[in-house]
């Protein structure tokens, strides 16, 4: 099945019920097939696992955790008895997002206090974490942080309508803001909610309260060859598809962008393979009406591109698993 096949649709595989309040986010385990974590306003994180026999999903573990207290908890041993091995304190108020770098040596956090923190794990000290940077460039709450998939370059997005890019360019390893994507350079005009990268890491997708999805690109080979930082530039804007705030975007490993929004829909976009005089363009592949009964807060593709599975989370207290498949 090709991504550009005309008769593709999102088929609901299973509803995962258990949370008692709105579900904020979902994430797949990148190292284990068929394992999903979800977090909720009910103050729990649930770990869901797919049975190898029945292929159905069940909640295998329930973790009590918090973020509104300004702390970040690091957990381990999900396969047996989960244990909180570190509590990272520093943010003055709620922590909005966390992200590991590709090697697992750095953890980034961001919060309502407008700051971004970078923590480094110390394996020789029983996996303690040291603060190596506190970044204060945003003027409003920071909604999300995300490390680049192949380089130690950090991205953050905020209520101040911008995306900031942070990296270390000196021998001291100090992180600084090397670029700000704002309305002045074809960026968003309202709160930026989510960021995701394509498989190659040379393109980025962002979404916003301005009802737009934006595509960005850079020359990744130049950065990887040691030429220094290469700026990201705007490719195109997808607007007129969602009619309420777009809360989440995620790029699959085979090139499909999923978006979830306050209009209760999930929409999928692909490269149209027909560049116009204005540059590359993307087209709507699938629109799933009433994917949830309320706002869709998070969409996330499974890391195994062959499965074509998508997880979503919503204010309706539900996590859903979807499959991109050919329709009859």
UniProtKB/TrEMBL annotation:
UniProt cross-references to Pfam families, sorted A to Z: WD40
GO biological process: iron-sulfur cluster assembly
InterPro entries membership: CIAO1/Cia1 (IPR028608), WD40_repeat_CS (IPR019775), WD40_rpt (IPR001680)
GO CC annotations on file: cytosolic [4Fe-4S] assembly targeting complex
Keyword Chloroplast part of the UniProt annotation: no
Lineage: superkingdom: Eukaryota
Repeat (WD) residue spans along the chain: 16-49, 88-122, 135-166, 185-217, 289-328
Entry keywords, A to Z: Repeat, WD repeat
Function: Essential component of the cytosolic iron-sulfur (Fe/S) protein assembly machinery. Required for the maturation of extramitochondrial Fe/S proteins.
Family of this protein: Belongs to the WD repeat CIA1 family.
Protein name: Probable cytosolic iron-sulfur protein assembly protein CIAO1 homolog
